[in-house]
Amino acid sequence: MTEKTEQTDNQEPTDIFLWANQADAHKDALEVDLFMFTKGYTVYATNYAKELKAQLKVLFLYDMISQVQTGAATGMQVRDFEAAAAEDNVLERASLDKVEHAQEVIEQIIYDEPNLEVFREGDHEFKKVKGIIARFTRAGAEPFFVAKLLPQSQVLKGATAWMYNGDSFQPFSADAGLRIMPDNQVLVAGSDIFAFNETKFIRMFGYDAKKFAVAEEKIKEIEAHLKL
Q1: Are 137 and 143 in contact (CB under 8 A)?
Q2: Which of 54, 66, 11, 53 is nearest to 193 (CA)?
Q3: By C-alpha distance, which of 199, 195, 205 is closest to 104?
Q4: In whole angstroms, what separates CA 121 from the centre of its chain?
Q5: Helix, strand, coil content of the chain in percent (nearest 5)
Q6: Are residues 213 and 82 in contact, defined by beta-carbon separation less than 8 angstroms?
Q7: 186-189 and 144-149 as β-strands: parallel, antiparallel, unpaired?
Q8: Using DSSP, how many helices (H) and how many strands (E) does the chain show?
Q9: What is the chain's pLDDT, residue by residue, as a tens digit (228 residues)?
Q10: What is the DSSP string of 6-64?
Q11: Which residues pair with 37 in a beta bridge?
């Protein structure tokens, strides 16, 4: 299917439907790395047990691929975030260079990964973490990134949490626990960022050009009225 887009600049948009087909075809070959970023958009590297790799693909990727492929079959449109409204079967995109904080996060991962500090709960605080981002890579292909907002309600702290094991409550044995929501939120592919969830995208990266666009239109209307 050909991507339908209402483009406001001359930049060729990422073909999200081609992305989904390629990610689906090569999903078993994809390697996954996890990073977290703070409210100030400082990025930290993380480690994870190899047993979690399959679960990471389920939580971050597979449903996103499915949503795009289903959309391709049902006429989903891709529109510029600045001009689109949150509608059914419409996927909003923006050029990554317009979303300053998202670009800042991605550039830290791409260009400064060897220098990224590994997040340790003893040295850092989960309450400062804003989001978690999975980088998917495979040989011969450009990496892509899937980001999720990480509200504090999804963080379990060892000092205040219990776990239920078998037939009894027991102390939570880890420094902290995370509950990762399975919903689709934000994808960075190529030079574009796709907002599967407009509200969480805005909260995650503090970008809401629509408000400014609406304000500018109102100013133009007022000025036109005054001239009359």
Answers
A1: yes
A2: 11
A3: 205
A4: 23
A5: 40, 25, 35
A6: yes
A7: antiparallel
A8: 6, 13
A9: 444 444 444 557 899 999 999 999 999 999 999 999 999 999 999 988 888 888 999 999 999 999 999 999 999 999 988 776 667 889 999 999 999 999 999 999 999 999 999 988 666 677 888 999 999 999 999 999 999 998 877 777 766 676 666 765 676 677 677 778 889 999 999 999 999 999 999 999 998 876 655 555 666 666 666 665
A10: E-SSSSPPP-HHHHHHHHHHTGGG-EEEEEEEETT--EEE----GGGHHHHHIIIIIHH
A11: 43, 131
pTM: 0.82
Helices 198-205 and 100-112 meet at what angle, rounded to 10?
A: 70
Neighbours of 82 (CB within 10 A): 18
Exposure string of 19-38, with b = 16+ CB inside 10 Å and e = fewer, is bbbbbeeeeeebebbbbbbb
Please give the Cα distance from 44 to 115 (Å, whole number): 9
Phi first, then psi, for residue 71 (nearest 5°) are -60, -35
What's the one-letter identity of residue 62? Answer: Y
Q: Which residue shows structure tokens 């990073």? A: 35
Kindly state the tokens that stand for 36: 């977290």
How many CB atoms sit inside 10 A of residue 62's CB?
A: 14
3-state secondary structure of 183: coil
Query: What residues contact 201, with CB distance under 8 A and at least 6 apart?
Result: 92, 185, 186, 193, 195, 207
* Assigned token pair, 159: 């000092």
Please tell me what DSSP assigns to residue 126: G
Rounded Cα distance between 175 and 158, Å, is 5
